Amino acid sequence: MLNSPQRAARKIKNLLPITTIWWREIIRFYRQRSRLFSAIAQPLVFWLLIGSGLSASFQPSGAADGPDYIEYFYPGIVVLVLLFTSIFATISVVNDRREGFLQGVLVAPVPRWRIVFAQALGGTTLALLQGLLLLLFTPMIGIRFGVTSLLLSLGVMALLAFGLTNLGLLIAWRMDSTQGFHAIMNLLLIPIWLLSGAFFPSTGVPGWLAWTMKFNPLTYGLAAFRHSLYLDTTAKAFGEGPPWNLSLLITGLFCVLTYVGATLTASAQTN
Amino acid sequence: MVDTKVSHTITTDSRLSTVSNSRIEVENLSHAYQRRQALDNISFDVSCGEIFGLLGPNGSGKTTLFRILSTLMPVTSGTVRILGHDLATEVKAIRNLLGVVFQHPGLDVKLTVVENLRHHGHLYGLAGRTLSSRISELLECFGVSDRAKERVEILSGGLQRRVEIAKALLHSPRVLLLDEPTSGLDVATRRQLNNYLGMLAQTENILVLLTTHLLDDAEACNRVGILDVGKLVAIGEPNALKNQVGGDVILIESRDNETLGTAITERFGVSIVSTDNQLRIECKRGHEFARNVVAAFPNAIQSVRFGKPTLEDVFVTLTGNPFVERKDTKD
User: Fold this and answer.
1) Pick from B70, B106, B123: which is nearest to A100 by CB?
2) Is A100 close to B95, i.e. CB distance below 8 A?
């Protein structure tokens, strides 16, 4: 039988590895500022160039008038920043676990699920901070937040970032080389983003594409994000996206499944 | 009557367990990657207070053995007990007892020395004042106190290695495993490290097990196990192993080793091993043999070296192979 101070001490002992791994992710990022720049600059350039360029010719179906392409594209760009930041945060796992820092973590008496959870929290925090920077652009495109809308948007962003980091970890724990990781990034992750409704809505696309988008978990993440952004605005979310509660549910499921997947992968790859 | 019996059993058991509580016991350990046999039925024991060196060229299986002992790879065949715990079933208990220094740098170069150590301490549940005082104690001991707040990336290779070993000792492990600990270090630092490990084993009664492909490092160990293509071909104290070779070692270089080798065998009736463009001959009274052989073939011989056997000679004698890297295998 443990008395309560002992139980508290054990709780702290179990939490310590998680907080320390999380903290390392943050401090590393802070000390490599080029990472901050690269994860946010590229999506911003995409947004401004593609958004402005297509504004003249692209009228999102389902939106009769008003919102132009640069506004339609905006939530997708936020998600792209989340994707880039969280995925880049996981790439170090590839080399680190074979001949680097992670070896020392792996021989420590810390269960794999705690290591993965801490890594995922680290990636989520970084992605969220970058996403927050991007939210500063909302007044420019006419989105007005209430408190609920802002909190909800942040919550959805956190869920998305957590799920995406775990997706990255799931891949990184399996990869032997960073080249392999980049290949997966281009062949899998970018298409997932392209076909999530970030770039174009699913209404009016060929049947097979609409179905692909329907089975893409990020479609629901993006829809949930659009819903929460426009909660206080009269303008409707664009297109016939999936409903709000279904979107949130699937995003939550995506988080759980990717986390379980990443933990299982990490356990299978190490003793 | 019954009582005495019970107490008797307990004494026997506890004596048995104190023995195995201070040992690494490896029995019939084998490991294969797909088709290649990396470790082939290896058995040995190491006790606390001892420095044990696994010597072998690259590709001999020592990294595989190291990864198994450090809990990174599962035991697939055979048994390993570390201080009484079975490696196959009690990984968590074993991880608490181990301090591990990897061949590849395991420090985060973007963190400072202290940050690296604190991170490590947290993983082992150390925190607060206990952790801080343990960190300063070790930094002091390794002579890196003045660099504590600097980022690891600006430290020299030798200093980084010291921090790395300090890190492995932070949670006061009873077993210290080191994979090629002296790689990348200059001779002076290497000697210093070997001395320090010796002191650690003696004063703290820590079990030190290291792998190396450097003969000097192996000489500094209490006992050495020699690995060749996954097999443990010899085990013992460095001097005892060298005495096995017997006599002296003569190394001869010539323009045509094959012809000369045959000629020497015919004339003197000695057995010759041809390695690395050299002829290698073991014999008693080597100084006389060297004189005779030069007198017999003055023109064919380019150089003659005479010496006492080294651990390399032990390796060559036992395996018939030169002590060099095997390029066809991956460790």
Assistant:
1) B106
2) no
Helix crossing, B286-296 with B257-268: angle to 10°?
A: 120
- For A183-238, how does the pLDDT look when each residue is reduced to its tens digit (9 = 90+)? 988 899 999 999 998 888 887 788 888 888 989 999 999 999 988 888 876 555 55
Q: Please give the class, per CATH, of domain B247-308.
A: alpha beta
B10 interfacial to chain A (CB closer than 8 Å): no
Q: Do A73 and A196 meet the contact criterion of CB atoms below 8 Å apart? A: no
Q: Does pTM top 0.80 for this prediction?
A: yes
Q: What ipTM score was computed for the predicted complex, to two decimals? A: 0.87
Residues forming CATH 3.40.50.300 domain(s) in chain B: 22-82+90-237
B123 interfacial to chain A (CB closer than 8 Å): yes
| CATH 3.30.70.790 boundaries in chain B | 247-308
SS (H, E, C) A189-216: HHHHHHHHHHCCCCCCCCHHHHHHHHCC
Half-sphere exposure of B146 (CA within 13 A, CB side): 1
Of B91, B110, B125, the CB nearest to A28: B110
Name the CATH superfamily for B22-82+90-237: P-loop containing nucleotide triphosphate hydrolases (3.40.50.300)
